[in-house]
Amino acid sequence: MSDASSSHRRLATRLVHPPRGASPKSTAAVNPIHRSTVWGLAPESLEAGVDGVYADLVYPRYNNLPNQQALASQMADLEHAEAALVTASGMSAISSAILAVVSSGDHVLAQTGLYGGTHGLLTRLLPDYGVSHDFVDGNDPAGWRGKLRPTTKVFYVETLANPLLDVPDLGAAARFAAEHDLVAIIDNTFATPLAFRPLDHGFHLVVHSATKYLNGHSDVLAGVVAGGGARVAAAESRLKLLGGSLDPQAAYLLARGVKTLGLRVPRQSENALALARHLEGHPAVVSVRYPGLESHPHHARAAELFDGYGAMLAMELAGGFDAASRFLAGVRLATHGASLGGVETLVVSPAKSSHAAMPADERRAVGIADGTVRVSVGIEAIEDLVVDFDQALGGAASP
Q: Which of 106, 115, 301, 388 is catalytic?
């Protein structure tokens, strides 16, 4: 949470200068890496403890050590949260947040078209532990009530759905959760706090795959949970048992990456809009999904809610898997790789990566065609990206 000295500062400044409380014992401009897994305990700690437990027990899996503490404080500040928790991956953040709310017999309501890992958690793992789910159209609030059960505890959505960049009715989702006493959890990875701060709009918990834009350099695996203090503490209690503690080196690199978020993402978003507009007119491209395009079905909503449209886009190529495969093999500047959010442009087939575990008929039903290619746009010169995509699409269009 922001302290009094920093809360008035603009976001671009707070990215570079996190709250002083994030590193209270150091005047260093960069927080050093604390690699120790053992920390001395004060003699009076046991006397001050409860039920024989040390009052200041520090153990790397149980407590956020200095690097994690500093990073969690910064994440809370950026998301306007009371507290935040940093984790070893985006999936550890998502699973900890959901498991902090549900138990056997409970029910989760979730938006269709979620990231494949989240879809797998809801459809393949949680049912084994007695947690059921239903998927709903994020743009059809009238249909949500019909899927509601007495045991529903969570309404889960994504700010920008992966990979088609749908923008659900976020205002209605937060209101629906409040009306029915549900915990509203939102994955804000694609939007980042630069574009949207869900807690300001009524959501209870925000999760990120910090591997992506928050870090931005394709060299860290990490996650974030942010929200009210009690809810984050509940997620932390699950994380202690699941073991998804973030390594100090990763925390250090993530804190470094966050400092340039305000420079990277606007440049990436500018490139994404230019590339999307170019691809819309390409004969090998059936359709382009980017919320900054007037042709996007949720463009008006994105313009109303977001401070920028992000750097992700999806295109469907004529010719299905074969065309997508030729394009992915043909890029020379972009990298064919299964991630996103880095400074380099990445391209991938969702049907073969993030959504490979989803049954093909279900995948196609939510709009992920065999020829869909997801693009994470980087900071390269847009002229070079256009040249690279054009030459690769020439091969994709080959018979």
A: 115
Residue type, 27: T
Cα 109 to Cα 132: distance, rounded to the nearest angstrom: 9
What Cα–Cα distance (Å) separates residue 295 from each residue in 163, 278, 298, 393?
A: 17, 13, 9, 21
pLDDT of 28-43, one tens digit each? 778 888 887 777 777 7
Which one of the listed residues 153, 212, 264, 301 is annotated catalytic? Answer: 212
Q: Is 212 a catalytic residue?
A: yes
pLDDT digits 0-9 by tens, 41-91 = 777 777 666 566 666 666 777 666 788 888 999 999 999 999 999 999 999
What is the spatial distance between Cα 226 and Cα 161, in angstroms, rounded to a whole number? Answer: 19
Q: Tell me the per-residue pLDDT of 2-33, one tens digit each, with 9 for 90 and over.
A: 444 466 788 889 999 887 655 555 677 788 88
**Nearest CA-CA partner of 193 in 340, 64, 81, 69:** 81
Q: What is the residue-wise DSSP string for 253-319?
A: HHHHHHTTHHHHHHHHHHHHHHHHHHHHT-TTEEEEE-TTSTTSTTHHHHHHH-SS--SEEEEEETT
Catalytic pick from 106, 166, 187, 388? 187
Q: Which entry of 20, 35, 61, 149 is annotated as an active-site residue? A: 61
pLDDT digits (tens, 9 = 90+) for 119-168: 999 999 999 999 999 999 999 999 999 999 999 999 999 999 988 999 99
Taking the C-alpha atoms of residue 197 and residue 206, their distance in angstroms, rounded to an integer, is 9
Q: Is 181 known to be catalytic?
A: no
Q: Is the pTM of this model over 0.90?
A: yes
Helical H runs in the chain?
11-16, 45-48, 66-78, 90-99, 116-120, 141-144, 170-179, 192-195, 229-242, 248-258, 261-280, 299-305, 320-330, 360-365, 382-396
138: its two tokens: 């994020």
> What is the identity of the amino acid at 263?
L
The contacts of residue 169 (CB under 8 Å, 6+ apart) are 138, 139, 141, 301
pLDDT > 70: what percent of the chain?
91
> Which residue has better confidence, 368 or 203?
203
Active site residue 77: no
DSSP state of 333: S
Examine the residue annotation and report whether 259 is marked as an active-site residue of this protein: no
